[in-house]
Structures are given as C-alpha cells and as structure tokens.
Fold each of these.
Amino acid sequence: MKHLVSRREFLKAGSLLTAGLLIPGLADSAPKARPLRYKIAVVDLMILKRQKLGALPLTKEIGADGVELDMGGLGQRETFDNQLAKPEIRQQFLDKARELGLEICSLAMTGFYAQSFATRPTYQRMVQDCFDTMQLMNVKVAFLPLGTQGDLVRNPELRPAIVERLKVVGRMAQKAGVVVGIETALDARGEVELLREIGSKHIQIYFNFSNPLKAGRDLHEELKILGRKRICQMHCTDEDGVWLEHNTRLDMRRVKQTLAEMNWQGWLVIERSRDANDARNVRRNFGANAAYLKSIFQAG
C-alpha cells in the first residue's frame, strides 16, 4: 500500500509538471534569449578633439559610453602622425578612460579619406602602426575608409589593387587578432561581392547609415543583405542638417527592429547629424544625439 501511494504521488507530480509547461507563468524558469546590447560612442575627430586627452572627459559629458580614436593626420608622411605611439601619452588615455568608465571602441585611419589606399607605397607600415597601437590599447576594431580616391563606383579600375591590398591587410589583421571595418561607395550587394573576393573574416564592413540614405537606397534592406557577420561596427548617423530625433528619413526605432531581426549587437558610433544652424556646438549636438540613441537602444 505504501508503495502504491508513492506511485500515485509520482504520477500526480508528473501531471503538474506537464501542466506547468503548458500554462503561461508556470514555465518561467525556462531559458530566455538574452537581450541584444548596444553601446553608444562618438568620434574624437568630429568632437574636435583628435588624439587629444580632452576627448575623454568631453565624451563623458556628452553622455556616450565610449570613443573612436583617430590615428592622426597623414598628409604626405610615410605613416600617421600618431601620438598614441608614445607610451606616456597612450598610458594617459588608458588611465583617463578607466577613471571615467569609458571604452575605446575602435581606432580610425581617417587619413585614407583623402589619401589613396590603392597607391600609397607605405600602406603596410601605416596599417601595422594602427594594429600595433590597437594591441597596446586592447582595441579590436579598426576603421578604414577607402575614401574619395578609393571610390570603387567612380574608379572601378582601382579594384584589383584595392582587393590585393585588402587581402594583405586581412592576413595582417588575422595575425594581430583584430578586425578591419572598411567603408566603401558600393551598395550592399557590391560589398558582399567585394568581401567574397577579399576572402578574409578579418575584413568586414563598417556600415555608415548616411551612405545608402544619400544614394536613395533602402537602409534596412542594405543591412539585411550584408547580414550580422559582415558588419563589425556602425556609424549610426546621417549627413549634417538636423539631429537624429528630427531626421524624417531615418527611423531609428525601425533600425532597432531591423538589427534585432538580424541579431546584430555592438557599437553605434555618432559621426554627424549636427544641427546645421549650430554645427560647432559639440556638447549640444552630440549630447542630443547620444541621449536620443540611448533612449531607443538602451531603454528597458
């Protein structure tokens, strides 16, 4: 009899467990998908503090979580005018970032906006200098714009040289344990094909929202075509004119939904979207945009 009661209790417990799996609220202990995380950064060059220690307290004042630091000017030098190569200056940046609770999300080689990545004879030294600095500062993403001289839409004849050089950079990045995010003038399908040609997981796309918007392409479709694994980081702004919250061609809540559908998370970096009537008011412009992005991407 004692054995029979025990069996009945066992069967009753089993039926309750089964019911718990069917009734909402009784199965809350089941594993849930982790929410996607987004962090907001600003560009030191665009807040007028290129490689200046003051970029860090200003970033904190703006309300961002981190900063993209520039590698310095290029001009006709053999490599960047990189103050972060100096141990004492680099340590000041690291110490100040730690003190303020900020992160350095990426290093930018913006010198290539106006200089030719396809023809500069010392490109490997420039890129290696960036990688060396990244390793010393524990930064995992480099930004490499192909710029006006590397525009593959207007200058398709440069493609073989650029692809060959990016293959080299990809091998260098793999050795350094970093990722290089390139910005091109191609549409998303063109970038997918370019990445296939390069053939390195260490070369990805640094997506800039303003590029498809300026060209009249569908921002959300472009993101989906590229997909989660091809995008390392994003410049999450548009051309200057109005703040993000007033931009009628950029629906940031829909962007968040698109990124969620892609399962993409990471750094959203504020580059522009300044008020055209007050473009040099850094605190006002970047503070407003940072607050707006946080209200959408970090709410709840």
Note: Residues 35-297 form a domain with the TIM Barrel fold (CATH 3.20.20.150).
Amino acid sequence: MKRLFEYFDYQEYLRDYYEEKKRDNPFMSYRYLGNHLRLDPGFLLKVLQGKLHLSERSLPKLCSFFKFNERESRYFELLVRYNKAKSTAEIKLYFEKLMTLRDSRSHPMEEWQYAFYQKWYHSAIHALLLIHEFNGSFKRLASLLSPPITARQAQESIRLLMKTGLVTLDADGIYRSTDAFVTTGDKWRGAAIHNYQKETITLSAEALDLHPKELRDISTITVALSAKDLPEIRERIRQFRQSIMTLDNENAPDTVFQVNIQVFPVTQAIGGKR
C-alpha cells in the first residue's frame, strides 16, 4: 500500500487500506471496519464506493484510528476537504496546501504538471521548440516570446518542461520538444486548466494593443440562442479546433499562435418566445 502522502483521493486510500487488511485478516468486513472507525457500515461502504463523503466531525477519530502523526492528520483532513471541494477556487486552495505537506519521497509529477498550467509561456515555449533550435541562451529564448518574459523565467520553464518530459536535451546540446503530453481529467487538473485559460484570455486582450491586425484575428458576435444548442456549438468548435491542429499547407511553421475560442452567456436565461 502506498504512503498517505502519495494519495490525492482519500477514498482510494481507505479502499486500499481495507483491501490490505482483508488479505491479512479473513474476519475483516465493512461491519468490522465500520465498528472500529465508529461509522455505520452502510455509510462506510458508500464512502468507499465514492457515493458519500466523510463528515468533518468524523476526521479526528479516523486520524486516531490510523495512528497518524500531526502532519499526516493535517494531510488527511485536507485530503477530505480537497475531494469534497466543488468550486475551482477551493480545489486550487486545498491542492496547493496538500503539495506543501508532501515530502521528497512522494512522487512530484503532479506538482510539475500542476505548475505547467500556472503560466501561459510554458506551453508557448514547448510549441516554440518544435520550430526553433534552442541551445541554452535563455535571454534569447525569453525575447522570442510575445510578450517577452525574463531569462530566469525561461530557464525555470525549460527546467519544468524537462521534468514533465515535454522537453529533452539531445547529444548536440539542443533542447527539443517531445511528443509527451500533460494529461487531464483529475480534479486538480481541472483547477489548473481553469487558471491557464484565464491567463490566455488575458493574453488575447493584451494582443489588441500588442500586435497589428495583420498578425491577429479577434472577432466577436452576440447572438440569441437556446441553451439546448450549446452541445451542437461545442461539437462545431471541437471540429474547428481539430481542423487547425491538422492544418495541412506548404508553409513551414515560423510562429507560435494562441487560438482562443470562447462561448459564454451575457444574460440570464429568460425562457422562449411568448
């Protein structure tokens, strides 16, 4: 069984604990464990199944049962709050607190991947190295971005990209982007991507003043639609994004572009025509 600090899902931790104890003790059951945790066995089963969450008042006795030290208890309590969090702000808050409690023995890949989404220029540099041979001049690399960043930021970005496997250093001393990717889907990734999207939307506003019209296309429409049309709009946007990703032309890439497509309501729903 993994150490507590390697978990980002307290229900997974409880399931692993139950399965491990059941292998060693044939008398182990949900009723047996529930009685020792002073929890209703039916409720405990639903918690392990991911259908219900532990209450705040039950956490001290669970920490006592598992014989957690102070730091472990704090981590477990935060883990429960993180898994129960609904808003992006709460998820981000608790995830970052969890990361401060993890130690060097815990696998750091989640932290690196989380950091990838915190700054817009990490993905920009990753894309840039597909068309630019970077040999270690961080000042030059920083100046190629728009808006430019500092040499130190460029150096930290390369270090992060290498940790996540998105960039490698070849035998010729050239940093190259790989085909690796940062996966999405976990709770923390949703919060991280939310932050990344906010950063790139801010970039699009700055682009109005930073770049001439010849190098940008920022257009808007305001239209009345049914909320039921949103799935169709999403599908059309998905197809459009895919067509850009697979764009086939004779021109060699020479610039990294950020393509933002945004659809959001600017009124409350008021019902159909009367």
Note: The mean pLDDT is 88.
Amino acid sequence: MKRSELIGLLLHNVALEHSAIIQYIYQAFLIKDEKVRSEIEKIAREEMRHMKWFAQKVVQLGGEVDLKRAEDAIDFSRESLKSMIEADISAEDLAIETYSKQIELVKEDSVKRLLERVIKDEMSHKEEFKGLLEEVTEEKAKENTETDEETVKVLNELLREEYAIILRYLKAFFHSKNCEYKDLMLDLAIESMVHMGDLGEKIGELGGVPDLSKVDLPKEEGLSLPDQVKEDILKEVASRERYIKEGEVSKREDVRKLLEKIKHQEEYHRRRLSEFLERVHRFTVGDLR
C-alpha cells in the first residue's frame, strides 16, 4: 500500500471516530438515565483517544489531519433510549468491520498494532452497549412540554462556536512542532469540550435538541506561530464578548449563571494565549540577537 493510500485510510478512521464521538455526545445531552449517560460519555472519551491515535499516525506519515466526519455514519435519531443504544451498537459494528478489513490490507506493523488495539476497544464498547440495552426500557429521550425556543437557539449558536474552537485547537495540536503550544492547544480543547457539554446539557434540559451538524473550519495556511496565536486570541476575545452579550439579555437565571462561568474561563484562555505569545516573542528576539 502506498503511503498516500495509508494516509487516506487513516483519515477515514479519524472521520469515523469523529462521527461516533458526535453521536454519543449528542445522546448524552438528551438522555435522562444517569447510568446510561455516564457510560456513553465514558465510551465517547475512549473514541476521542482513538481519533487522537489515528490522527497522530497521519502526521507521522507526513499527512495533514482535516478532522472531517463520516456524515452517513452519524445517527441523530432520538425516538427512544432503546433505539439510540441500538444505533450505538451499529456504530461499533461498522468500526469493527472497517478496521478488521484494514488489517488485511496494511503492511506497516505499527498501524496493524494500532488497529488491533482499537478493534478490541470497539468490541468491548459493543458488549457494554448490549449490556445497557438489556437494562433499558422504552424510555423517551429528554422531553419538556414547553421548549424555550429562543434560548435554545442562542445556546445552540454558542455550542457550535465551541465545537469549531475545539476542532481548531485539535488541528493545531496535531500539527504544531512547538511542544508548549501543543500542550496549550490540548488543554484549551479539553476545556472547550467541557463548555460544549454544559451548553448541550442545558439545551436538553430546556427541551431543545443540540445542533451538532457539521462545522467547516476556514483554511489558515502558512501562518507563523505568533500569527496563529494572535488569531486564537481574537477568537477567544470574540467568544467572551458573545457570552457577555447573551448573558446580559437572557431572562433565565440558570442560563445567565452558565454563561457567566464560561465567560470567565474564556478570559482565562485569552490570558494563557497572551502569556504564551509574549514568550514566543521573547524567544524570537533572543534568537535574532
């Protein structure tokens, strides 16, 4: 198999894992049962690890991680808890089948070992979902008779902004050669995932449906590290200002408290990025001397 073909295969796996993550997170926002929700969130975190491993292998082979999704593999149905878990079993079946076929095609031992490890994880996930399926009833996903549609619309806009930020930071994490910047990007991506989770759960509480449709990232090729960090800072400033604005006009105290909390964390992100930018400038000036 040519290197370009192997990179393409691994990028397909990144997309497949990305899709599973989104499906499981979407369900976690809507499911009432604490045990089931906790289990699905745990499996989603493990799928994030798989996506990271596949993406890192792409970079090692000289490819570029695009963080696309396999849209046809995502099931956003929410008829019942039972139907959602059945969709999860199908997602695990697809992953197991896909990776098992790939093992027969690839020659590189490191990729084979990675696929073998991930297949074992996916098989465990399938068994965990089958166990949950035996326990659940035909319980509906979260529903409220009254939906605060205006607030849900705003929260969904914020959720999608957080999703875009997560993808931006993860892409920087995979491709940056600066170890400190990579570490910072991963930290901020994880915190932004927490923000997205808080927003999604609030949307579910309000009787809404989280909007986790595809987010396209703008191309920012050729930026130097300082310019990249400046762009990161601008996005954090814009995000903080949006949280301030929506918090001031919200009529719901619970939503105002949530937005206030995230606003302060966005300011912390800006400060960390600014401090890193100062260090980059000092290092660059020192080099020039």
Note: Confidence is low (pLDDT under 50) at residues 285-289.
